[in-house]
Amino acid sequence: KSEVIPHHGLNVAPSDTWNTAYLAFGSNVGDRLQNIRTAIDLLNQRKTIRVKCMSSLFESEPMYFKDQESFLNGCLKIQTSLSPHELLVCCKEIEYDELKRVKKFDNGPRTIDLDIILFLNGAGEPVMIDDEKLTVPHKRLLERSFVLEPLCELIPPNFVHPLTAEPLIDHLNKLSKKGNDEDRLFNLVPVGSSGSTVNFLKFQNVTEEGIFGSTLGRGSKVATLVMAIVNTTPDSFSDSGELYCDLDKQLSCVKEICSQTLRLHEKLIIDVGGCSTRPNSPQPSEEEELRRVIPTIQAIKSCPDLPSDKVIISVDTYRSNVAQKAINAGASIVNDISGGSFDSSMFSVIAANPNVAYVLSHTRGDIATMAKLTNYEESQNGKLSEYISDKICKTSETATTRIIGRELAERYFAAVNNGVARWQIIMDPGIGFAKNGDQNLQIIRQLPLLKSFSCTWENGEHVSFRNLPWLVGPSRKKFIGKITKEENPSDRDFATGAVITASIGFGADIVRVHNAKDCAKAVKVADALYKQLP
Ligand SMILES: Nc1nc2ncc(COP(=O)(O)O)nc2c(=O)[nH]1
Ligand SMILES: Nc1nc2ncc(COP(=O)(O)O)nc2c(=O)[nH]1
After folding, report:
1. The pLDDT of residue 219
2. Which of 18, 82, 95, 446 could be joined to 101 by an S-S link, Cβ 3.0–4.6 Å?
3. ∠ CA(92), CA(93), CA(99), 5° rounding?
4. Which residue, by CA, sits nearest to atom 4 of ligand 2?
5. Ligand nearest 148 Cα, by number?
């Protein structure tokens, strides 16, 4: 029963006169990400083209001709008034005239490759072409996971290949099962650049076939990242502000955290926060928040013992001005508990800093009201055609998580419609934000549902969370203390270890913790258990 809801907040012009096309991009020469961004900007500059959605960014080994650099690949959904052949001319102009591609031989290195994968006319019917210039659907689509995987983020799961009439997701699953080298894809999230090279966080979500043949859902296969909290607030609920305003103390604490964590992990994120977001906590002024976080970020950034390819700096703020200044000071992740809802300029700051990652978190209301907004009743009048993995049926048990998924999808749309690229986004279910104890436990338990969540709105806009990385932040929170009967947050570290272990079992890619030293051990063991990592 596919139902849809009117999707507000999306100002799309009537698009019934425009064709839809799906393009695949690839680059393995020069600054690959910059080449891709330039190609997308050049497409958008054409009056005859509108880039509607972008996929995640994937890195993969070269196919066919192996002796070359690895590729960055992805897909775009565009609307265009051009015909397929006119669109082909436009792609070639961008490849050769504007991005100076030099084709030495087939399947060789390229600054950019733009292929037309699928083309639908104004009525949404697939267009089939096979002449000496152009073949649509792309003739090698079904053998390329570096095209099929990003494409499956942009289309509803029931979207079929025009010739085989089989869902593209089934073609992808068949291909992934072969386990060929070039089918092992990592999705990359840019986190700043040191010198001319961009640093990336790498994630890899694969569909796990359980040993008993059951599908375990999509599990991550790369080491879980530790995000260590450095609260520079006098009133933070969990470490009673010991670090407040003492820069030397903060830096030696950060060095200690890094040496203990990097003993077991390749990389580490340091999350610097100047505003406690405990429900109903008083919020400092923006000037006070800047005074607390900027010097700390600068000190970490300029500390020679903390190399920027191993220690990634995040700023925990919901203020766009603080985010921008923190980026200027060296932060390469903006961690915003409000999902961009507290400050309407946040997304444009993120869009203006394309090498910075953004944590898009779920909450409701504001710091003063969120504790009361925990009513997640299925709104009967609201109709939504949701595609969630068919293993998880739509029951009251999943209602809360599905509603959180929809609300996160609304924030996701607001972000990408304000220029944020999908590949900048890290998702977060917002543990402790507008959720009661049971709901916190439920969203951790149902993280697989959130990871495979997708939905389509009345105007045909579709969003899928497939492959997006997820951060969870349960550390020392009240819902843990309620179970272990521990009033004092800093007594909750051992129980926090249990929660982050379970979170990794449910598919978390990053865990945000206070006690990084001990939690780093729990993460290491959890990765050995759940991801079979050494
Ligand atoms: N991983 C990877 N391997 C590749 N091998 C060949 C071609 C050649 O593609 P073309 O047939 O469209 O020129 N493109 C890629 C690519 O984009 N990614
Ligand atoms: N991304 C993210 N950021 C956060 N920042 C602060 C807090 C509140 O906890 P704290 O005051 O102990 O940092 N929780 C989160 C969280 O769950 N996720």
Report:
1. 67
2. 95
3. 95
4. 337
5. 1
Over residues 253-301, the pLDDT tens digits come to 999 999 999 999 999 999 999 998 888 888 999 999 999 999 999 999 9
Mutation to probe ligand 1, out of 23, 64, 149 (largest number of atoms < 8 A from CB): 64
The parts of the chain modelled with pLDDT lower than 70 are 1-16, 208-219, 235-245, 378-394
Q: CA-based Rg of the chain, rounded to a whole angstrom?
A: 23
Active-site residues: which are they? 101, 110, 113, 115
State the amino acid at position 422 in one-letter form: R
Q: Helix, strand, or coil here: 61?
A: coil
| pTM recorded for the entire structure | 0.92
Q: Among candidates 383, 462, 466, 468, which has minimal Cα distance to 10?
A: 462
List, in sequence order, every beta strand (DSSP E) within 355-437: 357-361, 385-387, 425-428
The tokens for 240 are 């009673």
Locate the ligand 1 atom nearest the alpha carbon of residue 106 and give its number.
Answer: 13
The pair of three-digit structure tokens given for residue 56, joined into one six-digit string: 């995640």
The ligand whose atoms approach the alpha carbon of 444 most closely is 2
SS (H, E, C) 277-323: CCCCCCCCCHHHHHHHHHHHHHHHHCCCCCCCCCEEEEEECCCHHHH
Per-residue burial over 373-412, b if 16 or more Cβ lie within 10 Å, else e, is ebebeeeeeeebbbbbbeebeeeeebebbbbbbbbbbbbb
Q: Which atom of ligand 2 is nearest to the CA of 474?
A: 17
Q: Which residues line ligand 2 (CB under 6 A)?
A: 229, 236-238, 273, 276-278, 316, 335, 337, 359, 361, 428, 431, 471, 473, 512
Q: Is 182 in the pocket of ligand 1 (CB under 6 A)?
A: yes
Q: Would you say the C-alpha torsion 246, 252, 253, 255 has a positive or negative sign?
A: positive
Cis status, amide bond into 304, omega within 30 of 0: no
Whole-angstrom Cα distance, residue 239 to residue 253? Answer: 13
Cα 73 to middle of ligand 1, angstroms: 9
